[in-house]
Amino acid sequence: MVDEVVLLPELWVPEASQWLSSSAGRVALEGYSWMQAVHWVAGSGLYQPRRHRSSGLRAFNQTTVYIAQLLAELTPCRPGVEYLMRRTGLSRRIVNYHLAALRETGLLAYISKGTRVRGARAEASEFARMIPPEFDAALGIRTVLREETAPAYTRAVTGIAEAGRGLMAKLGRMAARKVRRTRSKTSSKASPAGAREGADGVVEAPVSEGARCTPMGGGADGSSAAGTTSLPSEGKLASGQNGSSSRRKGNAKTGDRKTTGRRKLNRIGRRYQLGRELTQQVEWLRGCSVPRIAWVARHVADAGWTVSEVLAWLHLRGTAERVHRGSGLLAVLLANAENVLDTPAKRAEAVAKWRGAQEVRRRHDIERVRAERERYEGDWQNPASRAVRTEVDDAIAELKSLSRPVVQDLVDASSDPGAASYEVGAEEFADIRAAALAELEAGITSLITDTVHGCGYDEALRVYGPELMTRARRIDQVRRSSLTTLTFGA
User: Distance of CA 57 to CAs 68, 255, 319, Å?
Assistant: First the structure.
């Protein structure tokens, strides 16, 4: 048989084959040989997850190798996500991404999947460390199944091709070196002797000769330098330094947090501040999500725009009468705004125009309200319906055009300066007062109210007298009440 090294085009294990019972690989007997396969996968470049999904890792990187090294220390391999988060300093989502990469390359297989049931204790997933068949094919490793009835993943190694021996030795040296996370720049501790920095900011150091033990089972040393390294919070950093010296310097400055009462916002904080102010001041943005509005307005927020400048720009662009999705309309209106008003002078001019338009609108509203009050003063209530208001205006105009003898004479007498000394007696008003009294007894006040709207309240009082005017007003008040019902006899 000729020993050959076979290079495969791609390395990908579907989700259905990520269980021990359905895996095509073989179980690694110990962590050293498994780490050889891990380093081979990391350096082969055969893992291309973006061909199969759009999220997750883009490639198998050194952080994935570091997590695999942590898994190689566990017996059984049952890592909790919180444990890996504590050791690596990564978020839950990123840790899950790296575990998915190890499963998709065939390096891990589920023995049992973890459960998270409400009211019960969460259980971590248990994995089997696997060596993918692509690794055996690439290095020419020969395996055999010692028992015919045994599962396929229990295959044992019987030999290796001559061409793969050099690569296997190189992988052995890489597996013997321990990978650690990069220390922070502010840390006072130096890297261990003989350590070298690899790709993705990961430090590789020789493995100590001490006994390896599983942190889950306890032992002499169950911690790692990666897990104890802590980064100072962003608020405690001052010019790249932390500690009591930087705090003492900050207290002497006028811009210190204790002096001003609030911390200066960074770029993300300014975005959220602008988004919150827009949801409070723009009517069609009320109820929208502040993070979404902050993301939509991120370009103008990064350019230093204030909420007044954004409102001025929205005034210049104009808005729709009906808004179905506020964030979408805001994204359309703010498109390229930071390039059009690219200077503070242009933005100040836009704010001045916007404030001028607001003042004109305010004066117009005051004049409109004043005109309505002057037009419908007294007991008259302006109808809410626009159609009813139109009918009322037409009725008043028609009333003014009527030629009632007595009312017209009163109007002419009041408008003629020469007739100012003419005095009208009670007998001239007898007919019209009798007609108004008959209407009031029937619950009708149209004659008196038409006279009020056509000639004014003073002239109506002069014609009908205070008794009929008071009676008509009371009938109108009772009729407008929803708690009473008027019934007039014949």
Answer: 15, 41, 42
